Amino acid sequence: MVMINYFFVCLIFGTTFLAIKIGVDAGVPPFLSAGIRFFIAGLLLFSFMVWRERATIRLFFRKEMFLTGICLTFGTFATLYWAEQYVTSGIAAVLSATGPMMIIIIQSFILKQKGSRNSFIGCIVGVIGVTFLILPSFSIEISPFWIVGCFAIICGEVFYASGTIYTKNVVRKYNTTSPIALNAAQMMHGGLLLIILSLFTENIHLEYLFSPAAMGSLLYLIIVGSMMGHSMYYWLVSRTNPVFPSTWLYISPFIAVVLGVLFYHEYISWLTVIGTVTIIVGTVLVNFETLRALFSQKGTVLNDVKN
Prior knowledge:
By secondary structure, this protein is mainly alpha-helical. The chain has helices at 2-25, 30-51, 63-83, 89-96, 99-110, 117-134, 144-173, 179-201, 212-239, 243-246, 248-264, 270-286, 288-306. It has one domain (2-306). The chain has 13 helices and no strands. Helix 6 (117-134) runs parallel beside helix 11.
């Protein structure tokens, strides 16, 4: 079940960078677009969980949900949506691949947790692979906004890494509450903060929201990207560790390239092939201990069945 959910997380999140870019290019203010996406997705999921009696309304008012919402939704996506006005979705995916490395850096140097050498090597290999993968598309004109956009995404990954680590503690504290309900509550908080930020910083023209490109992007990101993808991601964090689920950031650029080749007849080079292989190697190294534990459990179960 873990590997199946991980596959779908990679598949879903691999398409969201392009979907965000389509919405931003359609003229929707980035903070407003992100805020509407996460608040509506969170509200629908949270309402469903309350209706199923898997959560109570009081959960929304817990400080842990607010803090998680600041990190996983507000900080991560405010920077990403804003930056995609100035950088391509491919470059955004490359820079977002620093997320797992940020997690290991925070765990090792701030939380003083001992990390494995395989994880460190895997993170480096994964980032190198992503760079190879996107390198052929780096035909861009460097501008101050491009540089600031890149820096903003990296700052967002610090929020993302902090939120992912904190989420593990939140799940332990609320171990009788569904991870989907926890995720929905934090998305609502993050979405509200993004909408408030939009009201103070953006010129809002609602007509842009109703263009086919904007509506298609928003609906896809709400239903598939947030309600499905983020719920699966939150579930994976609760069942494994903070680093393993975050390695979807290594796979997403590969998916973006494949979509470009299939639907937009984009060029695929030998660097793309090298990058793909390197990403797979890096992902395996980062998750070596977790994967070995999963396969050991499966082997034990199979032996029990045979006996």
